[in-house]
Protein backbone atom coordinates (compact mmCIF):
# COMPACT_ATOMS: atom_id res chain seq x y z
CA UNK A 1 0.00 0.00 0.00
CA UNK A 2 2.87 2.36 0.81
CA UNK A 3 4.40 1.94 -2.65
CA UNK A 4 1.01 2.29 -4.32
CA UNK A 5 0.48 5.60 -2.53
CA UNK A 6 3.91 6.77 -3.71
CA UNK A 7 3.23 5.64 -7.29
CA UNK A 8 -0.11 7.42 -7.35
CA UNK A 9 1.51 10.58 -6.05
CA UNK A 10 4.42 10.36 -8.50
CA UNK A 11 2.02 9.91 -11.44
CA UNK A 12 0.13 13.01 -10.42
CA UNK A 13 3.44 14.91 -10.40
CA UNK A 14 5.15 13.55 -13.56
CA UNK A 15 2.28 12.08 -15.57
CA UNK A 16 1.34 8.43 -15.78
CA UNK A 17 3.61 7.77 -18.78
CA UNK A 18 6.70 8.77 -16.80
CA UNK A 19 6.35 6.54 -13.75
CA UNK A 20 7.11 2.83 -14.09
CA UNK A 21 6.93 0.08 -11.47
CA UNK A 22 10.03 -2.03 -10.83
CA UNK A 23 9.38 -5.13 -12.99
CA UNK A 24 8.57 -2.97 -16.04
CA UNK A 25 11.69 -0.78 -15.93
CA UNK A 26 13.71 -0.96 -19.17
CA UNK A 27 17.08 -2.75 -18.74
CA UNK A 28 19.09 0.33 -19.83
CA UNK A 29 18.20 2.06 -16.58
CA UNK A 30 19.37 -0.86 -14.44
CA UNK A 31 22.40 -2.24 -16.31
CA UNK A 32 25.60 -0.26 -15.63
CA UNK A 33 28.64 -0.34 -17.91
CA UNK A 34 30.80 -2.50 -15.67
CA UNK A 35 28.70 -4.35 -13.08
CA UNK A 36 25.70 -6.65 -12.76
CA UNK A 37 22.23 -5.20 -13.18
CA UNK A 38 20.47 -3.52 -10.29
CA UNK A 39 16.81 -3.27 -9.30
CA UNK A 40 14.40 -0.58 -8.13
CA UNK A 41 10.91 -0.22 -6.75
CA UNK A 42 10.07 2.32 -9.43
CA UNK A 43 11.44 4.60 -12.12
CA UNK A 44 10.39 8.25 -12.28
CA UNK A 45 11.28 10.62 -15.13
CA UNK A 46 10.52 14.22 -14.13
CA UNK A 47 10.83 17.08 -16.61
CA UNK A 48 11.30 20.05 -14.28
CA UNK A 49 13.02 21.07 -11.06
CA UNK A 50 9.59 21.63 -9.54
CA UNK A 51 8.61 18.03 -10.27
CA UNK A 52 11.83 16.78 -8.68
CA UNK A 53 11.06 18.86 -5.60
CA UNK A 54 7.65 17.18 -5.28
CA UNK A 55 9.19 13.72 -5.75
CA UNK A 56 11.71 14.40 -2.97
CA UNK A 57 8.82 15.37 -0.69
CA UNK A 58 6.97 12.17 -1.61
CA UNK A 59 10.03 10.05 -0.82
CA UNK A 60 10.41 11.80 2.52
CA UNK A 61 6.76 11.14 3.30
CA UNK A 62 6.99 7.44 2.46
CA UNK A 63 10.51 6.73 3.73
CA UNK A 64 11.94 5.91 0.28
CA UNK A 65 15.35 6.70 -1.24
CA UNK A 66 15.73 8.54 -4.55
CA UNK A 67 18.70 7.49 -6.68
CA UNK A 68 19.52 10.17 -9.30
CA UNK A 69 20.70 8.90 -12.68
CA UNK A 70 21.96 10.78 -15.73
CA UNK A 71 23.09 8.90 -18.84
CA UNK A 72 24.17 5.91 -16.70
CA UNK A 73 27.76 5.93 -17.99
CA UNK A 74 29.40 5.91 -14.55
CA UNK A 75 31.65 3.07 -13.41
CA UNK A 76 31.16 2.97 -9.62
CA UNK A 77 27.46 1.98 -9.35
CA UNK A 78 26.43 5.34 -7.88
CA UNK A 79 23.42 5.54 -10.24
CA UNK A 80 22.37 1.87 -10.15
CA UNK A 81 19.75 1.13 -7.46
CA UNK A 82 20.00 -2.17 -5.59
CA UNK A 83 16.77 -2.38 -3.57
CA UNK A 84 13.51 -3.33 -5.26
CA UNK A 85 11.47 -2.43 -2.20
CA UNK A 86 12.65 1.03 -1.12
CA UNK A 87 14.80 2.66 -3.81
CA UNK A 88 13.28 4.83 -6.52
CA UNK A 89 15.33 5.60 -9.62
CA UNK A 90 15.15 9.22 -10.73
CA UNK A 91 16.25 9.55 -14.37
CA UNK A 92 17.09 13.13 -15.34
CA UNK A 93 16.96 12.58 -19.13
CA UNK A 94 13.80 14.73 -19.49
CA UNK A 95 15.29 17.59 -17.48
CA UNK A 96 15.82 19.99 -20.39
CA UNK A 97 14.11 23.21 -19.30
CA UNK A 98 17.06 25.54 -19.72
CA UNK A 99 19.65 26.17 -22.43
CA UNK A 100 20.65 29.79 -21.93
CA UNK A 101 23.84 30.74 -23.81
CA UNK A 102 25.57 34.03 -23.01
CA UNK A 103 28.05 34.84 -25.82
CA UNK A 104 29.52 37.85 -24.04
CA UNK A 105 30.30 36.09 -20.76
CA UNK A 106 30.96 32.82 -22.59
CA UNK A 107 28.77 30.90 -20.19
CA UNK A 108 25.95 28.41 -20.57
CA UNK A 109 23.13 27.92 -18.09
CA UNK A 110 21.89 24.44 -18.86
CA UNK A 111 19.60 21.79 -17.41
CA UNK A 112 21.19 18.64 -16.03
CA UNK A 113 19.50 16.30 -18.51
CA UNK A 114 21.39 17.49 -21.59
CA UNK A 115 24.19 15.22 -22.76
CA UNK A 116 27.72 16.47 -23.29
CA UNK A 117 27.54 15.77 -27.03
CA UNK A 118 24.35 17.83 -27.40
CA UNK A 119 25.85 20.76 -25.53
CA UNK A 120 28.97 20.83 -27.66
CA UNK A 121 27.06 20.38 -30.91
CA UNK A 122 25.00 23.48 -30.12
CA UNK A 123 28.01 25.48 -29.00
CA UNK A 124 30.16 24.60 -32.02
CA UNK A 125 28.43 27.15 -34.27
CA UNK A 126 29.59 29.83 -31.81
CA UNK A 127 33.18 28.54 -31.83
CA UNK A 128 32.96 27.40 -28.20
CA UNK A 129 32.81 24.16 -26.21
CA UNK A 130 32.61 22.71 -22.73
CA UNK A 131 36.05 21.07 -22.79
CA UNK A 132 35.55 17.94 -20.67
CA UNK A 133 36.55 15.43 -23.32
CA UNK A 134 35.43 11.84 -22.66
CA UNK A 135 35.04 8.60 -24.59
CA UNK A 136 31.55 8.21 -23.04
CA UNK A 137 28.63 10.61 -23.52
CA UNK A 138 27.43 11.51 -20.01
CA UNK A 139 24.74 13.94 -18.97
CA UNK A 140 25.69 17.31 -17.54
CA UNK A 141 24.16 16.32 -14.21
CA UNK A 142 26.16 13.10 -14.08
CA UNK A 143 29.38 14.94 -14.88
CA UNK A 144 28.72 17.36 -12.04
CA UNK A 145 27.85 14.57 -9.62
CA UNK A 146 31.21 12.90 -10.24
CA UNK A 147 33.44 15.88 -11.15
CA UNK A 148 34.74 14.28 -14.32
CA UNK A 149 38.08 15.26 -15.82
CA UNK A 150 38.72 13.69 -19.22
CA UNK A 151 41.63 13.58 -21.61
CA UNK A 152 42.14 17.36 -21.86
CA UNK A 153 42.09 18.06 -18.11
CA UNK A 154 45.78 18.94 -18.33
CA UNK A 155 44.84 22.16 -20.14
CA UNK A 156 41.26 22.94 -19.15
CA UNK A 157 40.78 21.46 -15.69
CA UNK A 158 37.92 19.29 -14.43
CA UNK A 159 34.18 19.97 -14.17
CA UNK A 160 34.55 21.82 -10.85
CA UNK A 161 37.05 24.23 -12.40
CA UNK A 162 34.54 25.02 -15.15
CA UNK A 163 31.33 25.39 -13.13
CA UNK A 164 30.20 28.83 -11.96
CA UNK A 165 26.80 28.13 -10.41
CA UNK A 166 24.30 25.36 -9.67
CA UNK A 167 20.63 24.81 -9.02
CA UNK A 168 19.80 21.81 -6.83
CA UNK A 169 16.89 20.22 -5.00
CA UNK A 170 17.62 19.51 -1.35
CA UNK A 171 16.61 16.60 0.83
CA UNK A 172 16.54 18.87 3.91
CA UNK A 173 14.22 20.63 3.97
CA UNK A 174 12.71 18.10 1.58
CA UNK A 175 12.11 19.57 -1.85
CA UNK A 176 13.67 22.99 -1.36
CA UNK A 177 15.11 24.33 -4.62
CA UNK A 178 18.35 26.19 -4.03
CA UNK A 179 20.45 28.34 -6.36
CA UNK A 180 24.15 28.42 -5.49
CA UNK A 181 26.45 30.96 -7.13
CA UNK A 182 25.67 33.77 -9.53
CA UNK A 183 27.32 32.43 -12.65
CA UNK A 184 30.15 34.96 -12.43
CA UNK A 185 33.84 34.39 -13.05
CA UNK A 186 34.64 36.40 -9.92
CA UNK A 187 32.42 35.98 -6.89
CA UNK A 188 33.66 35.74 -3.30
CA UNK A 189 30.47 36.98 -1.64
CA UNK A 190 29.99 33.90 0.54
CA UNK A 191 30.75 30.19 0.83
CA UNK A 192 31.01 28.46 -2.56
CA UNK A 193 28.56 25.70 -1.62
CA UNK A 194 28.12 24.70 -5.25
CA UNK A 195 31.56 23.12 -5.14
CA UNK A 196 30.52 20.96 -2.20
CA UNK A 197 27.77 19.38 -4.30
CA UNK A 198 30.05 18.72 -7.27
CA UNK A 199 31.55 15.26 -6.85
CA UNK A 200 29.07 14.19 -4.16
CA UNK A 201 27.65 11.33 -6.29
CA UNK A 202 24.06 12.58 -6.00
CA UNK A 203 24.00 11.99 -2.24
CA UNK A 204 23.82 15.58 -0.98
CA UNK A 205 21.29 17.04 -3.44
CA UNK A 206 19.79 16.48 -6.89
CA UNK A 207 21.62 18.84 -9.25
CA UNK A 208 19.10 20.15 -11.77
CA UNK A 209 20.95 22.97 -13.55
CA UNK A 210 24.43 24.45 -13.90
CA UNK A 211 26.13 27.53 -15.27
CA UNK A 212 29.22 26.38 -17.14
CA UNK A 213 32.33 28.27 -18.18
CA UNK A 214 33.00 27.83 -21.91
CA UNK A 215 36.23 27.89 -23.91
CA UNK A 216 37.09 28.66 -27.54
CA UNK A 217 37.18 25.62 -29.80
CA UNK A 218 40.69 24.77 -30.98
CA UNK A 219 41.17 25.75 -34.61
CA UNK A 220 43.99 23.28 -35.03
CA UNK A 221 45.55 20.34 -33.23
CA UNK A 222 48.71 18.32 -33.70
CA UNK A 223 49.41 14.95 -32.13
CA UNK A 224 52.23 12.44 -32.06
CA UNK A 225 52.78 8.95 -30.68
CA UNK A 226 56.23 9.03 -29.16
CA UNK A 227 58.59 6.21 -28.20
CA UNK A 228 60.82 7.39 -25.34
CA UNK A 229 64.28 5.89 -25.02
CA UNK A 230 63.38 4.38 -21.64
CA UNK A 231 60.96 4.69 -18.74
CA UNK A 232 63.48 7.00 -17.08
CA UNK A 233 63.09 9.41 -20.00
CA UNK A 234 59.30 9.80 -19.63
CA UNK A 235 59.05 12.34 -16.82
CA UNK A 236 61.96 14.49 -18.06
CA UNK A 237 60.15 14.65 -21.41
CA UNK A 238 57.01 15.77 -19.62
CA UNK A 239 58.91 18.45 -17.68
CA UNK A 240 60.53 19.82 -20.82
CA UNK A 241 57.38 19.98 -22.91
CA UNK A 242 55.48 21.68 -20.08
CA UNK A 243 58.23 24.18 -19.29
CA UNK A 244 59.46 25.02 -22.78
CA UNK A 245 58.11 26.97 -25.72
CA UNK A 246 55.16 24.58 -26.12
CA UNK A 247 53.97 24.88 -22.50
CA UNK A 248 50.77 26.82 -23.16
CA UNK A 249 49.87 24.67 -26.15
CA UNK A 250 49.94 21.19 -24.58
CA UNK A 251 46.39 19.85 -24.29
CA UNK A 252 47.17 16.19 -23.59
CA UNK A 253 50.10 14.07 -22.44
CA UNK A 254 48.97 10.44 -22.27
CA UNK A 255 50.90 7.32 -21.37
CA UNK A 256 50.27 3.94 -23.03
CA UNK A 257 52.01 0.76 -21.92
CA UNK A 258 53.04 -1.77 -24.55
CA UNK A 259 50.29 -4.30 -23.58
CA UNK A 260 47.64 -1.58 -23.80
CA UNK A 261 48.85 -0.41 -27.21
CA UNK A 262 49.10 -4.01 -28.44
CA UNK A 263 45.51 -4.70 -27.38
CA UNK A 264 44.18 -1.68 -29.28
CA UNK A 265 46.18 -2.52 -32.42
CA UNK A 266 45.21 -6.18 -32.30
CA UNK A 267 41.52 -5.29 -32.04
CA UNK A 268 41.93 -3.42 -35.35
CA UNK A 269 44.00 -6.14 -37.03
CA UNK A 270 46.85 -3.66 -37.29
CA UNK A 271 49.65 -4.96 -35.05
CA UNK A 272 52.56 -3.97 -37.29
CA UNK A 273 51.41 -0.49 -38.25
CA UNK A 274 53.30 1.56 -35.62
CA UNK A 275 57.02 1.80 -34.96
CA UNK A 276 57.73 -0.88 -37.62
CA UNK A 277 56.05 -3.40 -35.37
CA UNK A 278 58.55 -2.83 -32.54
CA UNK A 279 56.38 -1.23 -29.90
CA UNK A 280 58.17 0.59 -27.07
CA UNK A 281 57.72 -0.53 -23.47
CA UNK A 282 55.83 2.71 -22.88
CA UNK A 283 54.56 5.17 -25.48
CA UNK A 284 53.38 8.76 -25.13
CA UNK A 285 50.53 10.51 -26.89
CA UNK A 286 51.38 14.21 -26.99
CA UNK A 287 48.84 16.70 -28.31
CA UNK A 288 49.09 20.42 -28.95
CA UNK A 289 46.09 22.62 -29.64
CA UNK A 290 45.53 26.29 -30.37
CA UNK A 291 42.73 28.72 -31.10
CA UNK A 292 44.99 30.34 -33.72
CA UNK A 293 44.87 29.16 -37.36
CA UNK A 294 47.81 27.30 -38.86
CA UNK A 295 48.68 30.40 -40.92
CA UNK A 296 49.49 32.18 -37.64
CA UNK A 297 50.95 29.27 -35.69
CA UNK A 298 51.90 25.93 -37.28
CA UNK A 299 51.47 23.36 -34.52
CA UNK A 300 52.69 20.45 -36.62
CA UNK A 301 55.93 22.29 -37.32
CA UNK A 302 56.37 23.17 -33.64
CA UNK A 303 55.74 19.59 -32.54
CA UNK A 304 58.17 18.30 -35.14
CA UNK A 305 60.85 20.75 -33.97
CA UNK A 306 60.41 19.60 -30.36
CA UNK A 307 60.63 15.95 -31.38
CA UNK A 308 63.77 16.58 -33.44
CA UNK A 309 65.43 18.19 -30.44
CA UNK A 310 64.46 15.24 -28.26
CA UNK A 311 65.77 12.81 -30.89
CA UNK A 312 69.10 14.62 -30.82
CA UNK A 313 69.22 14.49 -27.01
CA UNK A 314 68.55 10.75 -27.09
CA UNK A 315 65.34 10.97 -25.04
CA UNK A 316 63.15 9.90 -27.99
CA UNK A 317 63.93 7.00 -30.33
CA UNK A 318 60.89 7.03 -32.63
CA UNK A 319 57.66 8.92 -33.23
CA UNK A 320 54.54 8.87 -35.40
CA UNK A 321 53.56 12.46 -36.19
CA UNK A 322 50.50 14.06 -37.74
CA UNK A 323 47.81 11.46 -37.11
CA UNK A 324 45.49 13.12 -34.59
CA UNK A 325 42.37 11.04 -35.18
CA UNK A 326 44.12 7.69 -35.50
CA UNK A 327 46.14 8.36 -32.32
CA UNK A 328 43.02 9.06 -30.30
CA UNK A 329 41.14 6.21 -31.92
CA UNK A 330 43.83 3.86 -30.66
CA UNK A 331 43.81 5.45 -27.21
CA UNK A 332 40.04 5.07 -26.89
CA UNK A 333 40.13 1.54 -28.34
CA UNK A 334 42.31 0.08 -25.59
CA UNK A 335 39.47 -1.05 -23.34
CA UNK A 336 37.73 -2.78 -26.23
CA UNK A 337 40.94 -4.61 -27.14
CA UNK A 338 41.55 -5.69 -23.56
CA UNK A 339 38.03 -7.14 -23.25
CA UNK A 340 38.84 -9.54 -26.07
CA UNK A 341 41.60 -11.03 -23.93
CA UNK A 342 39.61 -11.67 -20.76
CA UNK A 343 37.94 -9.96 -17.81
CA UNK A 344 39.15 -6.38 -17.41
CA UNK A 345 39.74 -5.25 -13.83
CA UNK A 346 39.94 -1.48 -13.93
CA UNK A 347 41.61 0.90 -11.46
CA UNK A 348 41.07 4.65 -11.81
CA UNK A 349 44.07 6.04 -9.92
CA UNK A 350 45.88 9.32 -9.49
CA UNK A 351 49.44 9.78 -8.22
CA UNK A 352 52.02 12.49 -7.66
CA UNK A 353 53.98 12.52 -10.89
CA UNK A 354 57.23 11.85 -9.02
CA UNK A 355 55.79 8.49 -7.89
CA UNK A 356 54.04 7.55 -11.13
CA UNK A 357 56.66 5.09 -12.37
CA UNK A 358 57.44 3.91 -8.86
CA UNK A 359 53.82 2.86 -8.43
CA UNK A 360 53.87 0.96 -11.72
CA UNK A 361 56.94 -0.95 -10.57
CA UNK A 362 55.75 -1.69 -7.04
CA UNK A 363 52.19 -2.62 -8.01
CA UNK A 364 53.39 -4.90 -10.82
CA UNK A 365 55.79 -6.66 -8.43
CA UNK A 366 53.03 -7.14 -5.83
CA UNK A 367 50.67 -8.46 -8.50
CA UNK A 368 53.27 -10.93 -9.80
CA UNK A 369 53.58 -12.36 -6.28
CA UNK A 370 49.91 -12.41 -5.33
CA UNK A 371 48.02 -12.83 -8.63
CA UNK A 372 50.58 -14.01 -11.21
CA UNK A 373 47.95 -14.83 -13.85
CA UNK A 374 46.84 -11.19 -14.12
CA UNK A 375 48.31 -9.09 -16.93
CA UNK A 376 48.93 -5.37 -16.52
CA UNK A 377 47.89 -3.09 -19.39
CA UNK A 378 47.97 0.43 -17.99
CA UNK A 379 47.37 3.69 -19.79
CA UNK A 380 45.95 7.11 -19.07
CA UNK A 381 46.37 10.77 -18.30
CA UNK A 382 50.00 10.90 -17.27
CA UNK A 383 50.05 14.67 -17.73
CA UNK A 384 47.55 15.25 -14.90
CA UNK A 385 48.73 12.32 -12.78
CA UNK A 386 45.87 10.01 -13.75
CA UNK A 387 46.35 6.33 -14.50
CA UNK A 388 43.98 3.63 -15.70
CA UNK A 389 45.90 0.73 -14.16
CA UNK A 390 43.92 -1.94 -15.97
CA UNK A 391 44.43 -5.66 -15.53
CA UNK A 392 43.28 -8.55 -17.67
CA UNK A 393 42.31 -11.81 -16.02
CA UNK A 394 42.72 -14.32 -18.89
CA UNK A 395 39.73 -16.32 -20.11
CA UNK A 396 41.71 -19.51 -19.53
CA UNK A 397 41.89 -18.86 -15.76
CA UNK A 398 39.29 -19.73 -13.13
CA UNK A 399 37.30 -16.62 -12.29
CA UNK A 400 38.34 -14.74 -9.19
CA UNK A 401 36.09 -15.13 -6.17
CA UNK A 402 34.60 -12.07 -4.47
CA UNK A 403 37.12 -12.42 -1.64
CA UNK A 404 40.03 -12.66 -4.09
CA UNK A 405 38.80 -9.61 -5.99
CA UNK A 406 38.49 -7.65 -2.75
CA UNK A 407 42.03 -8.63 -1.75
CA UNK A 408 43.38 -7.65 -5.17
CA UNK A 409 41.75 -4.23 -5.05
CA UNK A 410 42.75 -3.62 -1.45
CA UNK A 411 46.38 -4.45 -2.22
CA UNK A 412 46.59 -2.14 -5.22
CA UNK A 413 44.83 0.73 -3.45
CA UNK A 414 47.13 0.38 -0.45
CA UNK A 415 50.22 0.83 -2.63
CA UNK A 416 48.65 3.83 -4.38
CA UNK A 417 47.63 5.57 -1.14
CA UNK A 418 51.00 4.84 0.49
CA UNK A 419 52.62 6.81 -2.36
CA UNK A 420 50.30 9.77 -1.80
CA UNK A 421 47.82 8.80 -4.50
CA UNK A 422 44.04 8.57 -4.82
CA UNK A 423 42.11 5.33 -5.33
CA UNK A 424 39.50 7.21 -7.38
CA UNK A 425 40.91 9.83 -9.72
CA UNK A 426 37.69 10.87 -11.43
CA UNK A 427 35.03 8.14 -11.18
CA UNK A 428 33.82 9.20 -7.74
CA UNK A 429 33.14 6.83 -4.86
CA UNK A 430 29.83 5.03 -5.32
CA UNK A 431 28.90 1.68 -3.74
CA UNK A 432 31.69 -0.17 -5.55
CA UNK A 433 34.35 1.93 -3.79
CA UNK A 434 32.53 2.55 -0.51
CA UNK A 435 34.68 0.09 1.50
CA UNK A 436 37.90 1.43 -0.02
CA UNK A 437 36.84 4.98 0.79
CA UNK A 438 36.39 4.16 4.46
CA UNK A 439 39.59 2.14 4.59
CA UNK A 440 41.75 4.91 3.14
CA UNK A 441 40.11 8.04 4.56
CA UNK A 442 41.20 9.55 7.87
CA UNK A 443 38.71 9.15 10.72
CA UNK A 444 38.56 12.92 11.27
CA UNK A 445 37.62 13.41 7.61
CA UNK A 446 34.95 10.71 7.86
CA UNK A 447 33.50 12.39 10.95
CA UNK A 448 33.39 15.81 9.31
CA UNK A 449 31.92 14.37 6.12
CA UNK A 450 29.26 12.63 8.20
CA UNK A 451 28.29 15.93 9.83
CA UNK A 452 27.95 17.54 6.41
CA UNK A 453 25.79 14.62 5.24
CA UNK A 454 23.62 15.05 8.32
CA UNK A 455 22.92 18.65 7.26
CA UNK A 456 22.11 17.87 3.61
CA UNK A 457 20.64 14.36 3.77
CA UNK A 458 19.69 13.50 7.37
CA UNK A 459 16.94 11.02 6.46
CA UNK A 460 19.12 9.32 3.78
CA UNK A 461 16.62 10.28 1.10
CA UNK A 462 19.18 10.64 -1.71
CA UNK A 463 21.84 8.58 -3.42
CA UNK A 464 23.78 5.42 -2.66
CA UNK A 465 27.14 6.84 -1.55
CA UNK A 466 27.81 7.58 2.12
CA UNK A 467 30.73 9.82 3.07
CA UNK A 468 30.53 9.53 6.86
CA UNK A 469 31.64 6.67 9.14
CA UNK A 470 29.94 3.30 8.73
N-to-C span = 31 Å
Q: Note the main sheet.
A: 5 strands, antiparallel
List the quaternary state of the chains.
single chain
Count of β-strands: 21
The level 1 CATH classification of the largest domain is Alpha Beta
Q: Gyration radius, to the nearest Å?
A: 23 Å
CATH topology of the largest domain: Uridine Diphospho-n-acetylenolpyruvylglucosamine Reductase, domain 3
Helix percentage range: 25-40%
Strand neighbour order, sheet with most strands: 5-6-10-8-9
Portion in strands: 15-25%
Low-confidence sequence ranges: none
Number of structurally distinct domains? 4
The assigned structural class equals alpha+beta
Question: What's the SSE blueprint?
Answer:
Layout: H1 2-14, E1 19-21, E2 39-44, H2 49-62, E3 65-69, E4 82-91, E5 99-102, E6 107-111, H3 116-124, E7 128-129, H4 140-146, H5 153-156, E8 163-171, E9 174-180, H6 194-197, E10 205-213, E11 215-216, E12 220-228, H7 234-243, E13 250-257, H8 258-267, E14 282-290, H9 299-313, E15 316-321, H10 324-332, H11 334-339, E16 342-345, E17 348-350, H12 356-370, E18 375-376, E19 379-380, E20 386-388, E21 391-394, H13 402-418, H14 434-439, H15 443-456
Parallel strand pairs: 2-4, 3-4
Antiparallel strand pairs: 1-2, 5-6, 6-10, 7-11, 8-9, 8-10, 12-14, 12-15, 13-14, 13-19, 16-21, 17-20, 18-21
Helix pairs in contact: 1-2, 12-13
How is this structure best described in words?
The chain is α+β, with helices and mostly antiparallel strands and 470 residues long. It has 15 helices and 21 strands. The chain has helices at 2-14, 49-62, 116-124, 140-146, 153-156, 194-197, 234-243, 258-267, 299-313, 324-332, 334-339, 356-370, 402-418, 434-439, 443-456, and strands at residues 19-21, 39-44, 65-69, 82-91, 99-102, 107-111, 128-129, 163-171, 174-180, 205-213, 215-216, 220-228, 250-257, 282-290, 316-321, 342-345, 348-350, 375-376, 379-380, 386-388, 391-394. The strands form six sheets. A five-stranded antiparallel sheet has the order 5-6-10-8-9. It has a five-stranded antiparallel sheet with strand order 15-12-14-13-19, sandwiched between helices. A four-stranded mixed sheet has the order 1-2-4-3, covered by helices on one side. A hairpin with a 4-residue loop joins strand 5 (99-102) and strand 6. Helix 1 runs antiparallel to helix 2. The longest helix is centred in the C-terminal third of the chain and has 17 residues, at 402-418.
